[in-house]
Amino acid sequence: xxxxxxxxxxxxxxxxxxxxxxRSENDQNFQNSIISAYKFNAKWSxxxxxxxxxxxxxxxxxxxxxxxxxxxxxxxxxLILTLPPxxxxxxxxxxxxxxxxxxxxxxxxxxKFWHPLLKDLIHQQSLIDRQKFxxxxxxxxxxxxxxxxxxxxxxxxxxxxxxxxxxxxxxHLTNRLQTICIQDGIFQRKSxxxxxxxxxxxxxxxxxxxxxxLLIEKGMAANKIKIMGFHxxxxxxxxxxxxxxxxxxxxxxxxxxKYDKIKSKRYLQIVKYIAKTLNESGYQxxxxxxxxxxxSIYLKQIKKVVNISMQEALExxxxxxxxxxxxxxxxxxxxxxxxxxxxPIFECDKFSDVSFIVSIDCRKDDFYLKLLxxxxxxxxxxxxxxxxxxxxxxxxxxxxxFRCSAPGxxxxx
Length: 413
What we know:
By secondary structure, the protein is an alpha/beta fold. The chain has helices spanning 10-24, 28-43, 47-57, 77-82, 94-103, 114-122, 127-147, 162-173, 209-217, 261-280, 310-316, 327-333, 367-377, 389-397, and strands at residues 67-72, 88-92, 106-109, 148-156, 177-182, 203-206, 225-227, 249-252, 285-288, 319-322, 337-342, 358-361.
């Protein structure tokens, strides 16, 4: 293991938690939601599960100097499963281990960050704890050096949260792995820059030109932002769009109660109103909750909650509604009718300005009439041919100007 433990400065270690702490200054619910999630993950990283994971991980341990693409977690399943198998390794815990066993991918267990980060979120760590945490980062860094091929990458879905930042520090310390954050949610121009992602990674792969311009306006360096498109390929439903009056409608949920009680209350008012008025017109509104809404008490107030995959939803439903969900873009790309229910309280941009999604202001008197006209009157639109995500990803990382900056050069708080 690297001997000079103080290469990681006090500021480096503080930056691991800086996003959560800064955002929580005006939004305590956000830190509470992170603590809740980390408690769950810490439970699965106790000694028993740690040893159990290590035993099974032995059979999936990657070969040295072969791994080109390290993934933190399995958010980007399509990329993991379509890149060359011998060049891919997934980092994580029990859930990621099961994925790798099922799909025959290399796996590197990393479960030691949850407990100390949870402790630091609840209480201030001592200097001794910080030294121990730094040693864990260095140990992971040494493993990455041993396993990585030349021009390797660490890919994360979020470079703002503490565990991802700890793992990215380990990659930066190798001086050979470049860190990539892939955008998985739409950013809004009304949002303050410090709550957006992409600042900590060496490169940020964004959804479209509009999102790149937004980030540049917020102060992000243009040369680190690369346009890749969505992190998955558009799904092509086997079932064609139903005829008007027979169309099935689904609402994409969002975890507003995790962030803002006022927004959450308004969100539920809108969902209930739409469900009631659609029912009066002979339609049923089904509700597909966001994963972070699992266990929420208010779900009991919604008539039909469907816990299905995105692909299943795209096969089953014709029309999709939501407030600011990125899933609307996925549905639109798959040829389904997508409607943004617009309300300024959610501090969002109108999706209709940058996409084929229709935005309807729910405060207007003609809101419901417009919604019915879209449900009944919209025709199937021409599907846009989009290259598979792996092709788009490789096109970016293999471009001549991609590796112009040294790994770790873009680290910010």
